[in-house]
Design goal:
Chain lengths: 473, 312
């Protein structure tokens, strides 16, 4: 086998933080190489160095292939171009120097079909959901005929079905000699795909082993440097009074205090849209919402928050945080009223509350003053969750709350969600991870093509049954 | 790669150092630069641009822009002057009218930007023309003169030996600093400019914040118009042409991003000082006013270039 990529003692620091510390790595043609580690371990930074987006402080990158494609964790798409234009960016089909638009649309449609995603190639990216844009980014990377493909959490918003199709494509690519670097926090994916697994911790290279020599437990131990407490059965809440009643076209549900309602479905089933309508993020005609029995009109997120409804959005880069503002300023943005005396911010109170959240979520940051854009993806997610919780909501809407969050922190967040329910919070949970939905929910609603297709009980259902109701017929 | 905090501006010492070097060089080349009379004159000149620059800092921080400042200065100067004839009203009345006229223009800008979602460039370009027209209408196209001493005192008088315009500028800057760093409103301004969607999803009243930013900017332009009319002892319908560009230049030199969300009043004050010193220095060095414009243009671009190149 031939070596496609060789990293030789790479280091990179930002300000005082050593993000990548003396890492060496070799990737062969036809190899699927998983790079794993906790949030902030340095995975994305290392990959950006490989892709030439950052210059390493020390060390050398030797790439002997012809073409490299990368799927970015935070997606780098062009919002005002169409799906087809995004997918063909950089390798546009042309005839006599003119763009061949029909060929572009054909290529895009073909790639999307292989991914099992039905999207109009002429749609503008701006109008797509995060998960849909993620599939476009994947299609774009696949279309480039690269011999090294870097995938930084490509499935974080995909449901099992779309992920499955992606894995098959990755398998085909491997057969044709393409090397793949695969980053994910989902253990099952790693063991399903990887030939080799590399573990990073605090920027350092901890181990590189053939996947066959590791199992989940040993891998986690390498990642966190200690063994994790096994997550016992989650002690959930006892549902009380009905808090929220929602009626949208095709969708009707109610939510009780202390209850966790799971929303399952495939990409594009309309789960995020429904949540956005309840939260007032997207004004929706025909939305009727009752809170504790009283009809309310929610015209904006500010209105929703005033009624005690908070939300963690799926697309954290677009809706989740203000990139140049600090950890502290982002965390308290929704609840400044609590940390203010009239119009004046009470800095000390604010700082104390923020420190508490940083500890609670084990945020890896240089301090409360660090800009959120400089945090790793998983740590950014923790900031967004903390921001929602600081409003002390009665109803919490979580859209892919553990997207990009590492195993350890994920277990902590599950425990946190269960704990909040025990304290009486009503929780609407949208997740593309079947496990998450099955183990956390008290009830499961399955959505298909914008409408609810079934209500199931997690104790008496199976992933297969959920999938059956989720598939378009 | 970047400074960790956005409020620690100016974290870079570039601007203060450039200012110090410039002052040192000028005082060596022209010893009369450091004359008290010249310094007072210098800061007096800075005050008006400084007040405008502080005002437009709010708007630039939200990611917008205000091109109507110069015209609003003229309109509010004329409006104030109409109520400042001797024996008419106490000085506070024309002052209030000038500020209100400016605030009204700003509120109109803000309304169309926030509600109508029209690009700020276009809205304020329209206001630039409309406010100039109003100034000409109100004054009948002629300077409004014969103003009461109580009113003209604002632009030429001193309090405890310090010229009043300087005190006003200082007061405005201080207040704005507090507003932007210690108040909820300031936090919201940064949030709206830094990521409007996220601000909205976090429950920030995005429209009101924009409205308030444009209204404040307009009110401060009104104040600048009052100070100017008082200093030149007339309400000039043709005053203030091009002032918006000097004000925006000062803010940008001071490190506030034209994309919004980054920067602040501290930088704006330094930027306004730097521009004032350059103007004054070029005068003292007897550089012809044609060359002055060329040099000023180059310095603005150069300063911002140097500042931004650190970020890469
Ligand atoms: N531009 C930057 N400026 C400052 N610090 C940065 C920057 N980019 C990354 N870091 C820091 O470098 C460290 C590694 O970040 P990186 O994004 O590589 O982590 P990761 O392993 O991809 O984590 P995750 O699983 O959360 O995506 C983090 O502590 C992060 O805060
Ligand atoms: Mg990452």
């Amino acid at each position: 086998m031939s070596t496609v990529l060789q990293l030789d003692r790479i280091s990179k620091s930002f300000g005082g933080i050593l993000a990548v510390d003396d890492v060496s790595l070799t990737v062969q043609a036809g190899e699927i190489h998983a790079v794993t580690g906790e949030n902030g371990a340095g995975k994305s930074t290392l990959m950006k160095i490989v892709a030439g987006m950052y210059r390493p402080d020390a060390g050398a990158v030797r790439f002997t292939g012809r073409r490299l494609a990368m799927i970015h964790q935070e997606l780098l798409t062009f919002p005002d171009l169409t799906v087809a234009e995004n997918i063909c960016m950089g390798h546009e089909p042309s005839r006599w120097g003119w763009l061949d638009r029909p060929a572009m649309r054909r290529e895009a449609a073909g790639l999307l079909a292989r991914l099992g995603v039905s999207l109009n190639p002429s749609a503008r990216m701006r109008h797509l959901s995060f998960a849909e844009r993620q599939s476009v980014e994947i299609a774009k990377a696949l279309g480039g005929h690269a011999d090294l493909l870097i995938m930084d959490e490509p499935t974080s918003a995909l449901s099992d079905r779309e992920a499955e199709l992606l894995f098959r494509i990755i398998g085909d690519l491997k057969q044709s000699g393409v090397a793949v670097i695969y980053i994910s926090h989902r253990m099952a994916e790693i063991f399903r795909l990887a030939d080799t697994i590399t573990v990073l911790r605090d920027g350092r290279h901890i181990a590189t082993r053939p996947a066959a020599e590791l199992d989940e437990e040993r891998l986690i131990a390498l990642m966190v440097g200690r063994s994790l407490e096994p997550l016992g059965g989650l002690q959930k809440g006892v549902p009380g009074e009905t808090v929220l009643e929602v009626s949208l076209p095709g969708i009707q549900f109610s939510l009780r205090a202390g209850e966790i309602l799971g929303l399952a479905g495939l990409l594009g089933a309309g789960r995020s849209e429904a949540a956005a309508a309840v939260f007032g993020l997207v004004p929706t005609a025909g939305a009727h919402i009752r809170l504790a029995g009283r009809a309310v009109r929610i015209g904006s997120p500010a209105g929703a928050l005033a009624h005690g409804i908070a939300m963690v959005t799926e697309d954290r880069k677009e809706y989740g945080f203000v990139p140049r503002m600090s950890v502290r300023e982002n965390m308290t943005l929704s609840s400044l009223g609590r940390f203010a005396w009239g119009p004046v911010i009470r800095t000390r109170r604010e700082a104390a509350a923020v420190e508490e959240q940083i500890r609670r979520f084990r945020v890896r940051a240089a301090g409360a003053g660090q800009a959120v854009r400089d945090l790793s993806g998983g740590n950014q997610q923790k900031i967004v969750i903390a921001r929602a919780l600081l409003t002390r909501p009665r109803v919490l809407i979580l859209d892919e709350p553990t997207r990009g969050i590492d195993v350890g922190a994920k277990a902590e967040i599950y425990a946190l969600i269960a704990g909040l329910a025990r304290e009486g919070m009503a929780i609407l949970l949208i997740s593309s991870e079947m496990n998450e939905i099955l183990s956390l929910s008290d009830r499961i609603l399955v959505m298909r093509e914008g409408a609810v297709s079934a209500e199931l009980s997690p104790g008496r259902t199976t992933p297969e049954e959920i999938l059956r109701y989720a598939m378009p017929n | 790669m970047e400074k960790p905090k956005i409020k620690s501006w100016p974290a870079s010492l570039g601007l203060p150092v450039a200012l110090a070097v410039l002052v040192a060089a000028l005082s060596l080349a022209r010893p009369n630069f450091l004359n008290l009379a010249n310094l007072v004159n210098l800061v007096r000149q800075i005050s008006i641009n400084g007040i405008l620059a502080v005002g437009v800092t709010y708007v630039l921080l939200t990611g917008g822009v205000d091109l109507s400042l110069g015209s609003v200065v003229a309109l509010s100067g004329v409006a104030a002057a109409c109520f400042a004839h001797p024996g008419q009203y106490p000085a506070i009345v024309p002052v209030a009218i000038g500020i209100l006229a400016g605030a009204a223009c700003g509120a109109a800008n803000g309304l169309v930007v926030a509600r109508g979602k029209v690009a700020p460039f276009i809205v304020t370009l329209g206001m630039m023309t409309a406010a100039r027209g109003l100034a000409l209408l109100v004054s009948g196209g002629r300077p409004v003169s014969n103003l009461a001493p109580g009113f003209t005192h604002i632009g030429s008088g001193n309090i405890a030996g310090v010229p009043e315009p300087i005190l006003i500028f200082f007061f405005v800057a201080l207040l704005s600093r507090v507003l932007l760093t210690n108040m909820r409103f300031g936090r919201y301004v940064y949030a709206v400019g830094g990521n409007e969607n996220a601000a909205l999803a976090s429950g920030v009243p995005v429209r009101s914040v924009k409205m308030a930013a444009y209204t404040l900017c307009g009110a401060l332009a009104g104040l600048a118009g009052v100070v100017l009319a008082s200093r030149i002892t007339t309400g000039q319908p043709n005053a203030g042409i091009g002032y918006e560009l000097d004000a925006i230049a000062a803010v940008v030199i001071g490190g506030t991003s034209l994309n919004g969300g980054v920067g602040g009043v501290d930088g704006t004050i330094l930027g306004a000082l730097l521009m004032g010193v350059i103007n004054n220095g070029l005068d003292l060095l007897n550089v012809s006013s044609y060359y002055q414009q060329v040099v000023k243009g180059l310095i603005i671009v150069g300063a911002v270039w140097l500042d931004r190149s650190k970020d890469r």
